[in-house]
Specification:
heterodimer, A: alpha+beta, 3 domains, 3-stranded antiparallel beta sheet, B: 2 domains, 4-stranded antiparallel beta sheet
Chain lengths: 316, 171
């Protein structure tokens, strides 16, 4: 009876429960939503945005090569109709960007091949599938031949802005796209020649001074091209500028297919440009059972291929 | 009477202290438990990063070796993502039926990367090319997915893509 009457014990129990509820309420906020509870979601989204940004620039580099090669083919097709293209650089880049050679002239076969078409396609895909809104600006496009006679570089200065609820990202990069200069018809043969020749680099790898007569035979038979620092570069061949260039190349004209005289050498840029040599001093006929009879070369090239005097006869 | 009252107070205080103590233990234990989605999310990110950054030449497996030797893989410098895209391109253009090739290739390159308790599937351009199912997707407690943009240069004038490669992982 005395216990029931004494209510102090009940008070302690009630106090304990109140304190327990107080702590539970105090800490339950932290339990459900810690300060960094959204961090993985934000991190993941920013990783996706960063991934897209890298994808975009990588894609621009690859499609720069593809668009650049298509544009080159367009220019070559135009040369078959209009002759050499003295404004090659500007028309080439304009073709690559817009699909036109000039404001009034279409660049052949450039439908769905321009750099803008490719960049629009990845931008649209990102918007539709990844819910990423972005805008790009091509700040400039330029080109140069700096590394190899059979390729050139296209530089695309590109800015990309990504707008998202969680982050806005911007970057500007210069992408370098390498454009192969093989597999196209040689403009020199198109404009000044009597038959066509596809530019293909020889598989022979020779240092200066190591070329042999057998190499000349292979170059002749395969109609392939080799580097020649005093030759005419592919870009100059497109422009109709037949001056020597450090990225010069050369091939050898098939004397069975052309009319020539004792003053001609079969080096393509001299032969098609109708350059005449003094036969008594420089032109020799190569005596080789594989090369057609009466194949002629200037003395510089005879020495380049290490052809002995015994295998060469002056034309007059 | 007073002695029994003292016992009562002591027992009552012990009960109160136990309630407080247990409450605190429950609160703090809950606070330190990590969310379930994190390991799955990390696994997903690791898997897609692996597809993006690993080249075919780095894969040591009989199926990949056979695909290289019989000419189905022509460039071992392709990333796994590019190789899948190329297989898919060959399939959709009708050049070659690569349905089984894609399945076997993905199966081999995924070995040991996704734990057996988790199921996952790989889609190229919304077409299922591989799945490893442990539980039904519709009944799963957690699903995470990752989408990557992929493309493959086919030749000098043609690129296939961009397309989306999607990986779904669920528990």
């Amino acid at each position: 009876m005395g216990l029931i009457k004494n209510k102090k014990g009940v008070i302690f129990t009630v106090m304990a429960i109140v304190i327990a509820i107080f702590f539970t309420v105090l800490f339950s906020g932290r339990v459900e939503k810690p300060l960094d509870y959204k961090v993985p979601v934000v991190e993941t989204r920013i990783t996706v945005l960063n991934g897209y940004m890298n994808n975009f620039f990588d894609y621009a580099e690859v499609t720069g090569s593809i668009s650049g090669y298509s544009s080159l083919q367009g220019i070559i097709t135009d040369i078959t109709v209009s002759g050499y293209n003295a404004n090659f650089e500007s028309e080439y880049l304009y073709c690559m960007e817009t699909g036109n050679l000039t404001t009034s002239q279409v660049c052949p076969n450039m439908i769905n091949k321009t750099i803008i078409y490719y960049l629009d396609s990845i931008k649209t895909l990102a918007e539709d599938e990844l819910n990423i809104k972005s805008n790009y600006v091509i700040n400039s496009i330029s080109m140069a031949q700096t590394t190899d006679a059979f390729s050139m570089e296209v530089y695309i200065n590109l800015s990309l802005d990504i707008t998202d609820v969680l982050a806005n990202l911007s970057d500007t990069r210069v992408m370098t796209s390498t454009v192969r200069l093989e597999g196209i018809e040689d403009p020199l043969y198109i404009v000044q020649g009597t038959y066509s020749n596809i530019i293909r680099k020889t598989s022979l790898r020779r240092a200066e001074g190591d070329w042999k007569q057998g190499d000349l035979v292979q170059l002749f038979n395969n109609r392939t091209y080799k580097n020649y620092k005093d030759g005419v570069s592919i870009i100059n061949r497109i422009k109709g500028n037949l001056s020597a260039n450090v990225y010069g190349i050369e091939s050898f004209v098939d004397n069975n297919l052309v009319v020539y005289d004792i003053n001609d050498t079969m080096v393509d840029f001299w032969f098609w440009d109708n350059v005449k040599f003094r036969c008594d001093t420089v032109i020799v006929v190569i005596n080789d059972t594989i090369i057609p009879n009466d194949f002629q070369l200037d003395d510089t090239h005879r020495l380049m291929f290490n052809i002995s005097n015994r295998n060469a006869t002056h034309t007059c | 009477m007073n002695k029994r009252g003292a016992y009562f107070f002591v027992i009552d205080a012990l009960i109160g202290a136990s309630i407080i103590f247990l409450s605190l233990i429950i609160i703090f234990n809950t606070n330190f438990s990590s969310p379930e989605s994190n390991p799955t999310l990390r696994m997903m990110e690791d898997y897609t990063d692996y597809l993006v950054s690993t080249r075919v030449r780095e894969i040591q497996g009989p199926i990949t070796a056979k695909l290289v030797s019989n000419g189905n893989i022509t460039n071992v410098d392709n990333t796994l993502l590019e190789q899948l895209t190329e297989f898919y391109y060959l399939n959709v253009t009708g050049a070659r039926d690569t349905t089984n090739i894609m399945w076997d290739f993905t199966d081999e390159i995924s070995k040991g990367l996704v734990s057996e308790q988790r199921s996952f599937s790989v889609y190229v351009n919304k077409t299922l090319v591989y799945e490893d199912i442990d539980s039904v997707l519709d009944q799963s407690r957690l699903v995470v997915n990752s989408k990557k943009i992929s493309y493959k240069r086919i030749n000098d004038t043609f690129i296939y893509g961009p397309v989306i490669i999607e990986v779904k992982l669920w528990v």
